[in-house]
Amino acid sequence: MAAPLDDNDIPEFNNTEEDWPDPDVDSSTEEGAEITRRNETSIMASITRDVQQQVQTESADDDDDDDIPQSVYDKARDHNDQLTETERQLLLSRGDLVGLALAYPDSLTTDEIHDIFGWPPPDVTRANIQRAVGNTLISTPSEMYARVSNALDLGQFDTAIGDDEIILIMRLFHASENGDYNMKTPEDLGVPAFMAARTLLSRRLQLDLMTRRVVAYRYRDLNVRRHEWPAGVSVAPPTFPPGSQGDRGQATRDILTAINALQEQQALGNISEADFLARSGSLSASLTGLWPGPPRIPPEIMIMQSLPAWVRERYIAVRTESWPRTPSQPVLRADRSGAGPWPDYVPVEAAIDLFSEGTGSRGLDRDPDWADLPEAEKETYRARSEARRREAWAWFGRRLEREALERSPACPQPPPRAEPFEVFRDEQVAENRGEEVDFWEVVRRWDALSDEERWSYDEKMQMVNIRAMEEWQERMSNAAATADAAAPVG
Predict the structure, then answer these.
(1) Which of 118, 164, 197, 466 is a good FRET partner for 450, with 20 to 30 A between their CA atoms?
(2) Rg (CA), the chain
(3) What is the pLDDT of residue 27?
């Protein structure tokens, strides 16, 4: 039998193939079982060592990252020319491309710049740009951004910039047919200060952020309009704000610039939050008009689209009219909420509510159906609604009077609820000709009753409580009548 495994005897399974245990061992024998146990223990110990080494490495990396203050990163991004040599060496101590870009951005090669932005290699980028633009004079991302920015300045963004160029910029200059390219960046992997390096390089390469934001709006609109929508559903046409020159790109840039200016003014405290929300909301509405989003698909069309084709063709009649319908005339406020206010605790039963309840017209069809109703029928529903409103106020008045009466010291108090044992005790007193019976004697007699006899007192209890409540209600009615008679007339 092999000797027991000692922790110091655990082999390393990371070097050569000979270090790994032989899997062809007969574990049914005593020696084979021991070898198998040693192998499993060794493998688990090796895995544990690897995990510990990985954790130690990551902890060391985190400690190294924390050695560089955030203020140094911010200074490298915004005032790179003012970095001291000590600060540059501190950034270089990271030992990665981000540190090099922040310390000495001019020292980066073209390949390294493309690596930071997630672009393909320079020659591939050049080929993709020239294929999209159709111009061999444009070959770099900076020139591509300059081309788009110039089109925005001239009000020719919609006409001079093709859809292929928009797609190429948004895909980080990767070809459209390269559907499996990796969009992940070091930022996704948690690399500190990655965005600081990218921002610094974007400024030096004149990759205007505002230009990219305008491109992003058109890219989204392009995807919306290229989508195959169901029959009868279409994307709304763009709506230009007053004073625009008819180019969506230029108008979008102007709106985004105005929003940025508002944000700066709010940060400085020059405008109130309410004013900021109102003005920025108006600008955002203009953006929505320029770039309408996906159309709303009616539920019945969505359901129809989910059915098999043969079902749609043979059994589904496609609705061709527009939906939801627009009412032929606006619904009056009185028809929605009644001719006057309603009391608390009472549900509003307006004319249109009674119409919906009686006809089954609900949802987005209710308002158009009500608008198409003859005026005489509307008046019928209005009269019913007003009658119910008056009934509600009468009920509410009686409730208030009852509550006031119940709070009055002269009001009879409601009787306590009797229990089966109390009914039994009262019977015992009655049988004793009104003389009190010892309580514990009553308890002993109650305990001696059978289950059937006790259940009979449940019915007696209910009758006693009903009679007591009827008597109390009669006293309450008499008290209310007395209060009405004593109340001043008029």
Answers:
(1) 466
(2) 42
(3) 59
